[in-house]
Amino acid sequence: SSQQKSMSDAGDIPDQEVEQQEDDVLEEEDGPGDLMSALKDVLKRARAHSGLAVGLHEATKALDKRAAHLCVLAEDCTEAGYTRLIEALCTEHGIDLIKVPEKAKLGEWIGLGTWDKAGNVRKVVACTCCVVKEYGEKSKALDLIMEHFKKE
Fold first, then answer.
1. Percentage of the chain surpassing pLDDT 70?
2. Residues 93, 82: Cα–Cα separation, whole Å
3. Which pTM does this prediction carry?
4. Comparison of pLDDT for 152 and 147, the residue scoring more
5. Which of 45, 51, 4 is closest to 139 using CA atoms?
6. Quick one: residue 31, left, alpha or beta (phi over 0 = left, psi -120 to 50 = alpha)?
7. Alpha helices (H) along the chain
8. Burial (CB count within 10 angstroms: exposed 0-12, middle 13-18, buried 19+), residue 27
9. How far is CA 71 from the centre of its chain?
């Protein structure tokens, strides 16, 4: 619930400064090691700046309007039509698509679920698709993801 409080009180400057300092310390050590940890960091920053569209309806609206920079889709989606729709919209509009193995992990990364006071996950709400409309600030994680798409 402490994370939910800081999400709803986005104007609370001291919380954001503390969170920013923690992020900087983590990045200064060695930055994100792999694509998934970089993606987790980028999604966290986008969420902090209200730059995420979560779920099929919001994601398809953002993709259709070409307001999306990056689309994240869970590979364990059981609805084939859902997967085809998202992939087709990304291809048609030239939007980068990253697939993650589990929708439960994606839900946790974007802040869906509940946490106890110690910061441990109590309940995770799965999320099959989310779209980054606004990255927030630049980071090493974002650079790593951009580099990944340049190679493809």
1. 76
2. 17
3. 0.70
4. 147
5. 45
6. left
7. 2-8, 13-29, 35-48, 56-64, 80-93, 103-109, 140-151
8. middle
9. 9
